[in-house]
Amino acid sequence: MSKRYSLDSVNELSGGDDEFIIVLVQTFLEEIPPDLDSMVEAVNNDNPQTAYQYAHKMKPNLQLFDIDLLKQIKQVESWSKTGKDKSEILPTLNHIVATVNGAIEDLKADFQ
C-alpha cells in the first residue's frame, strides 16, 4: 500500500536534516489531530467561523506533507462563509477526516 503522505516538501525544506524532519513530523502528529477534532466539533456545533479557523490553520501542514486535501479544505472555508446547513459540508468533512487519519497512521508507523 502506498503512503498517504509524502516527505518531498519536508525534505526540501529541511535540506536533508533528519533531526529537523523528525521535529516536523512530531509537530504534525501533535498539532493536526486536535485541530482536526476541533474543526469537526465546530461543524457539528454549527460554528462555521471556528471551522474556518481550524481548516485554514491546518492547510499549510497538510500541504507540507503533500496530503492532497487543498480542494476540500477550501470547500470547508467557503462553506463557513455561506450560512448553509452543516449537512452540505459533512461528506467533505468525512473525506478530510479519513484522509488525515490515514496519513497520521502512516506517519506514526514510519516515525514512532
What does this structure look like?
With 112 residues, the protein is mostly helical. It has one domain. The chain has helices spanning 8-14, 18-44, 48-64, 70-80, 90-111.
Q: Bin the strand percentage.
A: under 5%
Main beta sheet: strand number and arrangement? Answer: none
Total count of helical runs of at least 4 residues: 5
Helix content: over 70%
Decide which structural class fits the backbone: mainly alpha
Q: Supply the number of structural domains.
A: 1
| Gap from first CA to last CA | 19 Å
Shape designation: elongated
Tally of strands: 0
| Average of pLDDT | 96
The ordered string of helix (H) and strand (E) elements is HHHHH
Pick out the low-confidence regions: none
The Cα radius of gyration reads 15 Å
Q: Key features?
A:
112 residues; mainly alpha
Summarize the model shown.
With 112 residues, this protein is an all-alpha fold.
Q: What's the topology here?
A:
Blueprint: H1 8-14, H2 18-44, H3 48-64, H4 70-80, H5 90-111
